[in-house]
Specification:
The structure is a single chain. Helix content is 42%, strand content 25%. The protein is α+β, with helices and mostly antiparallel strands. The chain has a five-stranded antiparallel sheet. The two termini are 23 Å apart.
Amino acid sequence: MKMANADQVELMRIISPELAERAVDLTQRAGSSEFCFPLGDGESVLAALLEAGVVPLGGDLWEVEDGEYFPTGESWYVNSIEGESVVDRVNRVGVAARSFFEVHRAVENGWVTFVVAV
C-alpha cells in the first residue's frame, strides 16, 4: 500500500489538528505521496511550518472536480542561495507563497500542497 512520504507525515505532526483534519492524502486519490489542504488554509499551514522551523521549498495548486484531485500545473518554488541566512530564506519563501496564494485565491475548489524536507 502506497503512503505519503515521511516528510509529508511529519508535516501533519507539525500543523494544528484542525488543519490536519481538513487535509486530504493524495496517495490513493491521485497517486501523489503528499497531503493537500484547502487553498484557504494555505497561509495558516505555511505559518505553522515556518514557526516550527520548516521552510518549504515550494508548493503546487490542485483542483477538485467531481471528487477527483488533479494538479493544475501552477506552483511556486524558491531556489536556495548559498550562504543565505535563514531569516532571508524564510522571508523570500513567505513572499513567494503569499503572492501565490493571492494570485490563486479565487480558484474554486482549489487545494495546495507543500514541498517540504523535514
